[in-house]
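I am still getting used to backbone structure tokens and would like to learn alongside you. To get us started, please write out a protein record for me. Once you have written the record down, we can walk along the chain together.
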Amino acid sequence: MKAKTIICVAMAAASVVAGAATIPAAPFTDNMVLQRGRRVPVWGTAQSGENVTVSFAGQTKRGTAGTDGRWRVDLDPLAASKEPRTLVIGERKISNVLVGEVWLASGQSNMERFASRSCILSSLPPVAGIVVFS
């Protein structure tokens, strides 16, 4: 009985290791924008000690997951580009990734004004390469 239990536990552990995957953190999804002109941190989780490879725009960076399973690599600064590219993290491919300015805005629940309807944006002439999302 004890031998069967040990074998079952060993098989379960082996299946977990065999199914181990490099998992990017939540911000890394299709249709994302990476900040231009700055080092870009890319992070996630994997099995402890697992080697992680990240490739984007001609760069390939490697790292190793720590004992807690967390890893991080930094891409060198990138030039702005509206060309959709693929970010590869381990075996995961993240598509339609652009490089440009990343701005985050937040506020209270009473913020109802759309940026696209702003008097500032509406008074400016269209600029090639700038996309305003509503």
